[in-house]
Amino acid sequence: PSAAKVVASLSGQDLSTFGFMTARKMDIKGIPVYISRCGYTGEDGFEISVPHEEVTRLSSLFLESPEVELAGLGARDSLRLEAGLCLYGHDLDDTVSPVEGVLAWTIGKRRRAEGGFLGADKILPQIKGGVTRRRVGLFIEGAPAREGAEIYTKEEELVGKISSGCPSPVLKKNIAMGYVKTGSHKVGTELKVKVRNRMQDAVVTKMPFVPQRYFREA
């Protein structure tokens, strides 16, 4: 939450016009960096490219701030899942289209009208005619559901699989993403997830699970 405060303090720069998904060159205590205001956690944050010989010094400068702590991959993964962000190789791969992944918003009006982009022959008909599966968010009762866990209807018809899942530290409940047959994707749909050979109740919910807090210029 204090990322902008710390970066502003170390760089001496006004970040009020540094918008989300933009990047700029910057100097941090004599270290040249290329910094982008983005991230993979749903929070306002920064990704920094730095000369390899300055990595340790830059890290030490940040860690001198009481607001900064080291975090591991597990923390990053729970944050990105709470934010409803996909992990390639799990929630996305080369068999998943943007429409199935509920990412058609990334394809602008001009591209939709003109076509001609890589994958257009498959994607444009899907935008108009729909798909047979969709990515959804789930709240799950009982034990956490991990990647590969099967998703069933209440009548125990197999309709999909979990692609990512973990306990949510913020919500204090188990969350997951997965792909289900179209028709079972609507928010509020009650489903079952098989975890360790036991059926557990689940319900389709809106994503992000936790509101994203990216910086937007006023």
Automatic annotation (TrEMBL):
Source superkingdom: Eukaryota
Domain GCVT N-terminal: 1-109
Pfam families: GCV_T, GCV_T_C
GO-annotated cellular components: mitochondrion
SUPFAM superfamilies (alphabetical): Aminomethyltransferase beta-barrel domain (SSF101790), Folate-binding domain (SSF103025)
Domain Aminomethyltransferase C-terminal: 133-210
Annotated family: Belongs to the GcvT family.
UniProt-recorded name of the protein: Aminomethyltransferase
Organism from which the protein derives: Blyttiomyces helicus
